[in-house]
Automatic annotation (TrEMBL):
One of its GO terms (cellular component) is plasma membrane. The lineage of its organism: Bacteria, Pseudomonadati, Pseudomonadota, Alphaproteobacteria, Hyphomicrobiales. Belongs to the ABC transporter superfamily. InterPro entries: AAA+_ATPase, ABC1_TM_dom, ABC1_TM_sf, ABC_transporter-like_ATP-bd, ABC_transporter-like_CS, P-loop_NTPase, Type_1_exporter. This is ATP-binding cassette domain-containing protein. Gene3D superfamilies: ABC transporter type 1, transmembrane domain, P-loop containing nucleotide triphosphate hydrolases. Residues 1-20 are annotated as: Disordered. It comes from Sinorhizobium terangae. It is found in: Cell membrane. SMART domains: AAA.
Length: 601
């Protein structure tokens, strides 16, 4: 693990330089909770009532204690005693019922809220441009869908009830004590207030530390997802990957954040806990109460409720403080979720148009990833149905970017792309995507059977059609040799299939879709010669009669293309057939010569 050790000093320096994080306001939380606000209100009212009922047995005991003191007669004591026992027992029973009901309603509201937010997130994520996922990775999605929702769950199902219950217990307790003797109540309230001040001092940097811990948790979460996503690369290159460095850095940052918090508050926290004990209230009550009794200003019976009910009140301070921590975390999570929900979705046309035919027109297309440098500076071309258009050029010329603009992974920043005469932005997403098959180098297979992995191409296709597509893609024999044939379960990496076989599986998917436009990005780049022959046969089957756009590095694979566009720095600098471009002696001819010089020697 030598390579993943991070210097504590470098982290601390970076942290000091960074801007002070701020706690988001309550508004995002209130907006997210709006759909369940009625249930939350009922839950809060029940928690408050339960806290009040929970106080009743103590008040009953206090009243009983007052009743047994002289000068009351034995007969009246018996009456009060039974009444106190009855009321106390009823209070305890009522508290149980109310806690049960509030917990049921709280968990119901929690489930409703999680369902509601998850549905909104899923719907919204489906509308975001794919480019957003590529840029942000799965970490941001995982964080919102699991970590942030877990914080919201903790807040609704636990923290809110704890905070309200604890606050009501303190207020109701002081109310009863004020009814007994207001002077002693002032003393008790002053002690409780000083405890709160101490807590406040101990926790003054709580927001800062909570935000720092949350930021470190986010980094741990993102690095874990990145690690799982790239496990094959990580394994291939041992522990020297940057992913592990990022993970180690995030774990260390979490440890440091926790350590700093504990160190900073070790004295004030210990003092506030010591102070917020029953003994403090007991001491204060005795110090003030006994002289008052001695001077004849207070009855002994009036002191008892302060010893029975009053000294229990400090125990409510800790749950109230813990609840407020939950509220802070919930505010941060709600702000995260809302910022994800407010990401601009791919704009959809109000009245979508249907394309007439499937010729593609790139009309002076420009595109920039960052709004500054143009990845595509000027790209114009017409691709007719039944023809193959190849896009070639040096690395970084913009070939993959062009392929990403067609399915609207990103929208062009200038010019337009039209299919059948209709701007992509005027078509609805379903029509656009169903009009094209995309075969990219990154092969994504779902954790499902082979059949279902092919059927994604056309969800209502019959098993027979799936099988026919597999046959056309030259993969049927391979599938039949798998343990359960077409019912074999595949992993995300297509366990049990070679690179070429997985590629043919995705070609089968594309064949099944019958889409009239086919976009191939480096589809045969990494295959051995045997696989490449099989994949080329499958591709010939897929592309017959379609509007085909091929992005290629190896020029011999596109020699037969109807037109070849040579891209450099985001511009088409040459166009024509293979022979014509060789005759020109330009960039294409030089790339060709560079790729085939070895073969000619
Ligand atoms: N997601 C992205 N964010 C920012 N810039 C990007 C992104 N993807 C590509 N680029 C930049 O856009 C330019 C064109 O990249 P693109 O991947 O389209 O080139 P390419 O011709 O397909 O390259 P290669 O043949 O190496 O795959 C490059 O300068 C690249 O660094």
């Amino acid at each position: 693990m030598g390579s993943v050790q991070i210097e504590e000093s470098s982290l601390s320096a970076g942290r000091q330089a960074s801007e002070k994080p701020r706690l988001p306001g309550l508004a995002p939380l209130a907006r997210l909770l709006r759909p369940v606000h009625r249930h939350l209100f009922i839950c809060a009212a029940l928690s408050a009532a339960a806290a009040g009922a929970g106080l009743v047995p103590y008040i009953a005991v206090a009243e009983l204690a007052r009743a047994v003191l002289p000068p009351n007669s034995p007969a009246s004591v018996a009456n009060v005693a039974w009444a106190s026992v009855g009321i106390g027992a009823a209070g305890a029973a009522l508290r149980l019922v109310l806690v049960f009901l509030s917990s049921r309603i709280g968990h119901y509201a929690d489930a409703e809220m999680l369902h509601h937010i998850r549905s909104r997130l899923i719907r919204h994520l489906g509308q975001l441009p794919l480019g957003w996922f590529r840029a942000r990775g799965s970490g941001a999605v995982k964080k919102a869908m699991t970590d942030d929702l877990e914080e919201m769950h903790q807040l609704i199902a636990h923290a809110l009830g704890e905070m309200i219950g604890a606050s009501v217990a303190i207020i109701a307790g002081l109310g009863y004590l004020a009814f007994v003797d207001w002077r002693m109540t002032v003393v008790t309230a002053a002690v409780l207030a000083s405890m709160c001040v101490f807590y406040r001092i101990a926790m003054r940097s709580m927001t800062h530390h909570i935000l720092r811990l949350i930021a470190a948790e986010e980094k741990i979460s993102a690095a874990s997802v990145e690690y799982a996503d790239g496990i094959s690369v990580v394994k291939a290159f041992g522990t020297s990957g940057k992913v592990l460095d990022r993970f180690a850095e995030a774990v260390l940052e979490y440890k440091l954040a926790m350590r700093d918090w504990v160190l900073e508050t070790r004295f004030s926290s210990a003092a506030s806990r010591l102070l917020a004990s029953e003994m403090t209230v007991l001491g204060a009550v005795m110090i003030v109460g006994l002289p008052l009794i001695a001077a004849g200003h207070l009855n002994t019976s009036s002191l008892l409720p302060f010893l029975i009910v009053g000294i229990g009140l400090p125990t409510s301070i800790t749950p109230a403080v813990q609840g407020s921590q939950g509220l802070r975390k919930g505010r941060v999570s709600a702000a995260h979720i809302e910022s994800l929900l407010s990401r601009a979705p791919l704009p959809e046309a109000d009245e979508p148009l249907r394309p007439h035919g499937h010729h593609i027109e790139f009309d002076e297309v420009r595109f920039s990833y960052d709004g500054k440098a143009d990845a595509i500076a000027e790209f114009s071309a017409i691709c007719e149905p039944g023809t193959v258009t190849a896009i070639v050029g040096p690395s970084g010329a913009g070939k993959t970017t062009i392929a990403s603009l067609l399915p609207r992974f990103y929208d062009v920043t200038g010019g337009a792309i039209r299919i059948g005469g209709v701007d992509l932005r005027s078509m609805d997403a379903a029509t656009l995507l169903s009009s094209m098959s995309l075969v990219f180098q990154d092969i994504v297979l779902l954790r499902d059977t082979v059949t279902e992995n092919i059927r994604i191409g056309r969800p209502n296709a019959s098993d027979k059609e799936v099988r026919a597509a597999a046959r056309a893609a030259r993969i049927e024999d391979v599938i039949e040799r798998l343990p359960q044939g077409f019912d074999t379960l595949l992993g995300a990496q297509g366990t049990g299939l070679s690179g070429g076989e997985r590629q043919r599986l995705t070609i089968a998917r594309a064949i099944l879709s019958r889409a009239p436009i086919v976009v191939l990005d480096e589809a045969t780049a990494s295959l051995d010669p045997d696989s490449e022959v099989a994949v080329q046969e499958a591709l010939a089957e897929l592309t017959r009669g379609k509007t085909v756009i091929v992005i290629a590095h190896r020029l011999h694979t596109v020699m037969g293309a109807d037109q070849i566009l040579v891209l450099d720095h985001g511009r088409v600098i040459e166009r024509g057939t293979h022979e014509a471009l060789l005759g020109k002696g330009g960039l294409y001819a030089r790339l060709w010569a560079a790729q085939h010089s070895g073969a000619q020697q």
